[in-house]
């Protein structure tokens, strides 16, 4: 007993250690990349990809909270990204000349996160009371609805105030000096480019901080108990809907933050099937599944690798999409096939005998 | 065990490919950052690596390159457009059109003695991918950008080219904002231009008194034209009686919109949409016995080639298009023949835009006296001034001129389909 206490005091708990490794990994990558950039060793392609990396890492971690920790399937995270992106882009465009860059982007982040959280909350209220795969179906539908609403939404502002229409730009009847904020299918153009790699990494760290602490908190344990056995959780007095709603709303708002980062990286923002449709939602789910469901660090690595892959394969022109899918399959087999898992274990034993012994001791 | 080994080996190959990919781009990046003198040697290096990577477009060119390198150096034109996905047809057409122009120019001695090299990258009609494609081109050492093919991508990339001072000429990005920056110009008409021109054409030729519009509200091109058309219609002799919108998710059944138009007593239906949907509309209008005139914009170009479609339904359809593959002038005939020989299909307007874009770049580069050792900033500044001074006779218009805003000035051509061919009106 005494021995154990001592070990606990001198060493951090296993989960804290694990979390520190995750933070360390992100910070180390950031430092290495910044060094390489300053020495001019990084191609423009990779430099251009740095912000998208951050975007997809954040949204993958957010979805992992829903899929891995809450145990529900969400196919609408691109929809939450879309809400966050448009809410913040409209704000930034409207206050482009009024507020200084840093403050504006900070407020935009809050607005994007709040908007996505609100929508996530509203979607969650009826759906999370249900059992089974209803959440997957409703979020899938929600993502498509959001995309279509944005595509017919016209929003403008002039001296009389804010005008909006679901028909066309003409029915807004803006004054001559009025500014169009959302132009239906044309989306938002002229968003200031406030995103950069540093901000992205800070946001990743904040996301990790929120998600990892959430998992280890009382609430997080309650959420995981619902995932593992709903009936048992209910029987000890856990309010299932409440905890599910908390986890889902946090996940949605983090996806909204990713959306803000996305919106402020490009000067044009449209809701296309490509970026905010269900294809994207599935893509995010692929990051999570490939990285390991419930494994936050895995999501980060998978999101970066899978965003990078189609770009570095550009040299192969027409074959790149084919190779990309083959790589996906290979990675899936390597990660999840029982044979491959066994093989990996043996490999580990062979090369890292020390670590195994350590584990056994613990 | 075998399977395991195989998957391991495959994974290994992928990783290796990944690493070599990174190495290449890093090398070429150093080149573009360095002085101009080094550029040519770097360029040669990238070429080789490109060739080994199996990039067919680059490989094709580099055979012609070997001789050109020693004389005036190379002039690197980058292109961006959708080569995969649902809009691939436009990107591929623009790429093919540009390629023909590049081949012709190289055969005739290049631009100012420089051999032209075209590297066309895929953007999947996604603005984010488009910026990635642009960055990849920067690593390759792009000097002038011929892109992007679609509007949204073009806007996203033009924000980056403005930062980097790279001259950009979009062949077919028709949204107003595509040329918002001083370094960007376009070949095609802008959306508002087409809407205004269509309304004026219908009004001036008294084609109709009551006009119905069917448009795609989820498409930038379509809704852009529609808005300006309606605004301009107010000052014309006809009135817009109904406007039926549809979206990309719901574009197979148009009976509601057609019935609306019929009930409103429209005698002309304006279709600022692409030809695939237009073909369905023509078919459904014929089925419901709705006899009316149809008028479209350049998006309708291609309607005669729609598969499983009774082309006789297009009889009498009018369209405002800068390019008609059936035109009989020498330039068009020559272009269409070469295109059909090379790619086994009839070129559409995007191919023509791509072709004209390359020749416009050539004209501007010659006017500005661009040489291979100029930096991108110098090229951009010189091209910007030269663009406002040149006049280009291209496939999509004669005597095209530009002003500093980046908008082309050219006459819209209206054609009517008679006996299955375009006939000038």
Structure description:
With 362 residues, chain A is mostly helical. Chain A has a single domain, classed as ABC transporter involved in vitamin B12 uptake, BtuC (Orthogonal Bundle), CATH 1.10.3470. In chain A, 72% of the residues lie in helices and 5% in strands. Chain A has 16 helices and 5 strands. Chain A has helices at residues 2-10, 14-38, 44-70, 77-94, 101-127, 134-152, 197-216, 218-228, 230-235, 240-263, 273-276, 278-291, 296-312, 320-336, 338-351, 353-361; strands at 154-158, 161-165, 179-183, 188-189, 268-269. In chain A, a hairpin with a 2-residue loop joins β1 (154-158) and β2. The model of chain A has no long low-confidence stretch (mean pLDDT 87). Chain B folds into 2 domains: 58-189 and 347-408, Response regulator (Rossmann fold, 3-Layer(aba) Sandwich); 192-321, Rossmann fold. Helix content of chain B is 49%, strand content 17%. Chain B has 13 helices and 15 strands. In chain B, the strands form 3 sheets. A 7-stranded mixed sheet of chain B has the order 7-6-8-9-10-14-15, with helices on both faces. Chains A and B meet through α3, α6, β5, α11 and α13 of A and α1, α5, α6 and α8 of B.
| Count of DSSP-assigned helices of chain A | 16
In what order do the strands lie side by side in the largest sheet of chain B?
Answer: 7-6-8-9-10-14-15
Radius of gyration of chain A: 22 Å
Count of helical stretches of chain B: 13
Mean pLDDT of chain B, rounded to whole units?
80
What is the share of helical residues of chain B? 40-55%
**Rough outline of chain A:** globular
């Amino acid at each position: 007993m005494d021995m154990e206490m001592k070990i606990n005091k001198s060493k951090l708990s296993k989960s804290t250690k694990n979390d520190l490794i995750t933070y360390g990994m992100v910070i180390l990558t950031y430092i290495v990349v910044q060094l390489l950039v300053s020495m001019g060793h990084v191609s423009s392609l990779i430099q251009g990809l740095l912000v998208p990396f951050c975007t997809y890492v954040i949204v993958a971690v957010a979805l992992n909270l829903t899929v891995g920790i809450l145990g529900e399937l969400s196919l609408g995270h691109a929809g939450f990204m879309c809400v966050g992106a448009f809410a913040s882009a409209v704000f930034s465009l409207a206050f482009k000349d009024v507020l200084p860059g840093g403050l504006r982007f900070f407020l935009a982040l809050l607005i994007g996160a709040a908007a996505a959280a609100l929508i996530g909350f509203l979607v969650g209220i009826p759906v999370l009371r249900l059992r089974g795969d209803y959440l997957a179906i409703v979020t899938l539908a929600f993502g498509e609805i959001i995309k279509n609403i944005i595509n017919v939404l016209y929003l403008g502002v002039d001296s009389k105030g804010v005008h909006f229409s679901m028909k066309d730009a003409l029915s807004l009847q803006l004054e001559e000096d009025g500014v169009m904020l959302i132009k239906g299918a044309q989306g938002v153009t002229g968003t200031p480019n406030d995103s950069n790699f540093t901000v992205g990494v800070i946001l990743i760290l904040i996301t990790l901080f929120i998600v990892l602490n959430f998992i280890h908190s009382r609430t997080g344990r309650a959420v995981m108990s619902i995932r593992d056995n709903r009936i048992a959780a209910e029987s000890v007095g856990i309010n299932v809907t409440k905890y599910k709603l908390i986890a889902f709303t946090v996940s949605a708002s983090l996806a909204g933050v990713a959306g803000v980062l996305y919106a402020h990286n490009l000067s044009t923002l449209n809701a296309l099937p490509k970026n905010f449709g269900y294809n994207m939602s599935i893509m995010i789910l692929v990051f999570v599944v490939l990285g390991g469901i419930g494994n936050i660090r895995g999501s980060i690595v998978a999101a970066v690798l899978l965003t990078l892959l189609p770009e570095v394969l550009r040299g192969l022109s027409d074959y790149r999409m084919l190779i990309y899918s083959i790589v996906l399959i290979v990675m899936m087999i390597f990660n999840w096939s029982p044979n491959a898992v066994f093989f990996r274990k043996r490999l580990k034993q062979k090369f890292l005998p020390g670590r195994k012994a350590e584990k056994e001791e613990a | 065990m075998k399977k395991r080994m195989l998957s391991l080996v495959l994974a290994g190959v992928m990783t290796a490919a990944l690493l070599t990919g990174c190495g290449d781009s890093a090398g070429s990046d150093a080149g573009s950052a360095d002085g101009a003198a080094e550029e040519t040697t770097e360029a040669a290096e990238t070429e080789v690596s490109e060739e080994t990577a199996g990039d067919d477009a680059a490989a094709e060119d580099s055979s012609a390159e070997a001789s050109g390198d020693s004389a005036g150096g190379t002039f690197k034109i980058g292109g961006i457009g959708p080569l995969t996905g649902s809009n691939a047809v436009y990107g591929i057409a623009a790429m093919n059109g540009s390629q023909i122009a590049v081949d012709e120019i190289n055969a005739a001695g290049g631009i100012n003695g420089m051999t032209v090299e075209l590297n066309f990258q895929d953007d999947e009609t996604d603005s984010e991918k488009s910026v990635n494609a642009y960055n990849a081109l920067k690593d390759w050492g792009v000097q002038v950008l011929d892109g992007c093919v679609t509007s949204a991508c073009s806007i996203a990339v033009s924000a980056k080219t403005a930062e980097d001072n790279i001259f950009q000429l979009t062949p077919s990005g028709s949204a107003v904002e595509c040329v918002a920056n001083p370094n960007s110009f376009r070949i095609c008409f802008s959306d508002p231009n087409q809407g205004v021109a269509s309304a004026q054409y219908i009004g001036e030729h008294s084609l109709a008194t009551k006009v119905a519009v069917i448009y795609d509200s989820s498409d930038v091109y379509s809704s852009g034209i529609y808005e300006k058309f309606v605004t301009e219609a107010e000052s014309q002799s006809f009135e817009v009686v109904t406007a039926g919108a549809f979206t990309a998710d719901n574009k197979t059944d148009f009976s509601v919109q057609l019935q609306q138009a019929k009930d409103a007593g429209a005698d002309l239906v304006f279709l600022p949409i692409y030809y695939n949907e237009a073909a369905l509309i023509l078919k459904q209008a014929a089925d419901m016995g709705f006899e009316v005139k149809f008028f479209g914009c350049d998006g309708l170009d291609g309607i005669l080639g729609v598969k499983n479609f009774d082309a006789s339904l297009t009889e009498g359809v009018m369209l405002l298009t800068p390019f008609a593959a059936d035109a009989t002038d020498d330039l068009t005939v020559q272009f269409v023949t070469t295109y059909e020989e090379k790619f086994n299909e009839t070129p559409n307007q995007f191919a023509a835009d791509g072709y004209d874009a390359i020749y416009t770049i050539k004209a501007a580069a010659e006017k500005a006296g661009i040489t291979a050792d100029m930096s991108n900033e110098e090229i951009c500044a010189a091209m910007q001034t030269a663009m406002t001074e040149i006049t280009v006779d291209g496939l999509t218009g004669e005597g095209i001129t530009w002003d500093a805003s980046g908008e082309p000035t050219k006459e819209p051509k209206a054609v009517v389909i008679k006996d299955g061919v375009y006939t000038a009106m």
